UniProtKB/TrEMBL annotation:
Keywords per UniProt: Acetylation, ATP-binding, Ligase, Magnesium, Metal-binding, Nucleotide-binding
Domain spans labelled AMP-binding enzyme C-terminal: 530-608
Family that this chain belongs to: Belongs to the ATP-dependent AMP-binding enzyme family.
Post-translational modification: Acetylated. Deacetylation by the SIR2-homolog deacetylase activates the enzyme.
Protein name: Acetyl-coenzyme A synthetase
Binding-site residues, ATP: G386, E387, P388, D410, T411, W412, W413, Q414, T415, D499, R514, R525
Cofactor(s) the protein requires to work: Mg(2+)
A GO molecular-function descriptor: acetate-CoA ligase activity
Acetyl-coenzyme A synthetase N-terminal domain location: 22-79
Amino acid sequence: MPETYPPSADFAAAARLRADDYARRYAESVRDPAAFWGEVAGRLDWFKAPTQIKDVSYALEDFRIRWYADGELNASVNCLDRHLEARGDKTALIWEADDPEVPARHISYRELHAEVCRLANALENLGVVKGDRVTLYLPMIPEAAYAMLACARIGAVHSVVFGGFSPDSIAGRIADCGSKLVITADEGVRGGKTIPLKKNVDEALKRPGTNSVETVLVVRRTGGAVDMQMPRDRWYDAVVGEQPATHAPARMNAEDPLFILYTSGSTGKPKGVLHTTGGYLVYASYTHEQVFDLKEDDVYWCTADVGWVTGHSYLVYGPLANGATSLMFEGVPNYPDVSRFWQVIDKHRVTVFYTAPTAIRALMREGDAPVKSTSRASLRVLGSVGEPINPEAWRWYHEVVGDSRCPIVDTWWQTETGGILIAPLPGATTLKPGSATLPFFGIEPALVDANGQELDGATEGNLVIKDSWPGQMRTVYGDHQRFIDTYFKTYPGRYFTGDGCRRDEDGYYWITGRVDDVINVSGHRIGTAEVESALVAHAKVAEAAVVGFPHDIKGQGIYAYVTLNAGEQPSEELRKELVAWVRKEIGPIASPDHLQWAPGLPKTRSGKIMRRILRKIAENQPDQLGDTSTLADPSVVQSLLDERKVK
Ligand code: 6R9
């Protein structure tokens, strides 16, 4: 018998939805999606309520995805203005600094509204207009939320670039969308260390393709010395301080872009995933309310950085659209010590806590004492996102962190999906450790084989979604064909997720991981192609192949095989240099964990690298290499195995 955890009677009694509600609502949602999502849209404030709800065709010859197409609204009004009357003094954002000695800040809905209006006015004065792109390269400080919402208020499209990315990565993202303005900070602070954000932006703006940028707004976070280039660079407080605290919001069409967020794919450069205003906000807010069983008095904490989609949907847009109190944490789980998460939970009486398996595994390794030294009595619901959570980590999260009291919602979704697609509803769903359980309302998952044949019952296959939902991405910025080719060509008529999945006899979904060339490192997507391109860009490297391998803490680690140019000698020094090179080219999260010299790479006669074999070598399973007969030169494999032993 697999282990199951039904909702406790107490939890279910107070929950928004119970088991039979889920079954009924789900059936309704897929029977008549337009009726269902038309009703759900009523949760937002619209300047003009939509009458056209769903207009979708996945057919390649007639492709379109439109939701609420005649509706008009503004996302910031939904996150701010409409709460002022009933929740003006309620805390919208709690800011907890990296250093626990720095007092936390409580920003009310009224204050947040004023800050966002000031910045919106400032951006307009700087010439930013509806449709312009604005790049945000910020630490986890309230200004990150102000900036996202101010862009939304004036109809500018934000592109948040994670603060851990390198100047080259910033430059590529600025060039791709042609940003007019960048908002950054002098320095970021994480785990007691500073990150030279403004310096990275300066470097980025020296790269070709970035001269669309007219202005750089710099938030003073540490007061560290930065090089201000006038008139390009302006201090945020100087520009924003004098602005009026009210602003007339732009009237946006539901299908106007809200933001672009770059994410790694299996090929080429990162894709600019574009989300629009109406469908995204309906979906982010509704899933946030239902999946976390949101209550008016919740103190909700999502630990994701605003640089990732989770930070967009479940730190900023979802919670604020719902009038919730959302906690933003600047720091890391192990600073000043490994009890920090649990101390923050006690300090702010956090009721809903949403984090990633990689953090849970890292903290689990530190034992129970750092958790047990805190109370955590305020906790009600725990969440997980970013990668499959192994049952052992799930149990620890449940028993030790949640004192066996709190349901865990394991939420499966993607940058592309805008919000959660497969997850339990905590008052309704019986949990199974390691399973994201059942589809959210309106979501029709299916498993297909390599030929696109739909598989029934308990089985395993590639995960596709058969119909659209409002939060779905609408295009790859600047490359609509790439959007269609990536997601709708492999299995015509269906959205292909890139994930493998098993379905059990109860219809529960168990995500098994990516089936494409994307590595999930600590919940962050890294394309093997990106790391390979970075390596090959080094003067001494002839060729590189990168694969993922199981890693205790990160879930997956990065394993790089490198062939040097003729005449170059492998050395420990060069190995370190190449790892540092990738770090510099892409960012610390892309640093290879292993770098192995490869005199040659296993290739088919047509020249395709056989990653399957490289994965098995990286996983140290030489007896499971499978068929190597189609290799152009089978002896390459033996030399790679020998090299691995030597290390
Ligand atoms: C939200 C987010 C998406 C990929 C996705 C899958 C993996 C995310 C998961 C999960 C198993 C979960 N993933 N949540 N796998 N269980 N609960 O992470 O977006 O950064 O785009 O990554 O992450 O492989 O395809 P994103």
